[in-house]
Amino acid sequence: MSNTYICSTNEEIVRLIQITDPHLFNDENGELLGINTQASFNQVLEEIKQSEFNYELVLATGDLVQDSSNEGYLRFCQSISKLGKSVFWIPGNHDYQPKMFEILNDNNGQISPAKHILFGKYWQIIMLDSQVYGVPHGKLESAQLAFLDQKLKNYPQRHSLIVLHHHILSTNCAWLDQHNLRNALEFANVLSGFNNVKGILYGHIHQSMDALWQGYKVMATPSTCIQFKPDNNSFSLDCAQPGWRELELYPDGDIQTRVRRIKQKTFLPNMLSEGY
């Protein structure tokens, strides 16, 4: 089976959304630090459906389920199907990949296991697995770096969006930055051989970030449940609301993007929580 998915479109500007870190549970009433993660996920999806952003695919960038449960992954499938769009996923540090492959890929073809997407005439999306099973930090193993190198080499004429779970740039939160991508230098060394990389997209940090790293546009996206407060060395939650990211990819390689947060309901975490 090919690991490449071809998303054909006549549109010059192609559009997608990113959702990340739902942390669903076996129990649909399961809470993470005071927030019912299924309810907040459902609300994000409902407000995406109501939006006027005309996207063509969804990137789900890890930590889909908190407790490795079959039921959590099944409800992710059932919930995301309401969007009626093709969905592509990567694992986060909380995910259990054998169940992801078994359950997510048995979903009438809407959820694809492909990690390489040829999107329209001008773009490719390369989705990388940064999970180190059993620990919160990330690493891109040699096979992932080779996959990245191969796809960048094979499609030099296409602008490239690179997607992973773990973060590269500091959040100015010591407790969170210890769980970053540990081999960012090796990652940068692969990218440095090419001039077609236009953006790097990730989740994991439960907060929004738009910045530059090594000259690349770097984007991080809020979770669909709890939010971590930026610029706090000790664990701290934020009252900012769950959200998602919209991206527009242009023929000249430009990326226009914005973070959206829910407006029709309010989810407040247990602010006395000291970690999870």
What's the CATH topology label?
A: Purple Acid Phosphatase, chain A, domain 2
- What is the SS-derived class? alpha/beta
Unreliable parts: none
Separate helix tally: 6
Number of strands: 17
Tell the overall outline.
globular
The CATH superfamily bears the name Metallo-dependent phosphatases
Give me the Rg, rounded: 17 Å
Query: What profile does the largest beta sheet have?
Result: 7 strands, mixed
The run of helices and strands is EEEEHEHEHEEEHEHHEEEEEEE
**Biggest sheet: strands side by side, in what order?**
1-8-9-10-11-13-12
Let me know the average pLDDT.
Answer: 95
Alpha-carbon distance between the termini? 38 Å
Instruction: Tell me the β content.
Output: 25-35%
In the CATH scheme, the class would be Alpha Beta
Question: Fraction of residues in helices?
Answer: 10-25%
Q: How many distinct folded domains?
A: 1
What is the name of the CATH architecture?
4-Layer Sandwich
Draw up the topology in text.
Elements: E1 4-7, E2 14-19, E3 31-32, E4 35-36, H1 37-50, E5 57-60, H2 70-80, E6 86-89, H3 97-104, E7 111-112, E8 116-119, E9 123-127, H4 142-154, E10 159-163, H5 174-177, H6 184-191, E11 197-202, E12 209-213, E13 216-220, E14 227-228, E15 237-238, E16 243-249, E17 255-261
Parallel strand pairs: 1-8, 2-5, 5-6, 6-7, 9-10, 10-11, 11-13
Antiparallel strand pairs: 2-16, 3-4, 8-9, 12-13, 14-15, 16-17
3D architecture notes:
The protein has 276 residues and is of the alpha/beta class. It has one domain: Purple Acid Phosphatase, chain A, domain 2 (4-Layer Sandwich), CATH 3.60.21.10. Helix content is 21%, strand content 26%. The chain is built from six helices and 17 strands. The strands form four sheets. It has a seven-stranded mixed beta sheet, covered by helices on one side. It has a six-stranded mixed beta sheet with strand order 7-6-5-2-16-17, with no helix packed on it. Helix 2 crosses helix 3 and helix 4 (142-154) runs parallel beside helix 6. The mean pLDDT is 95.
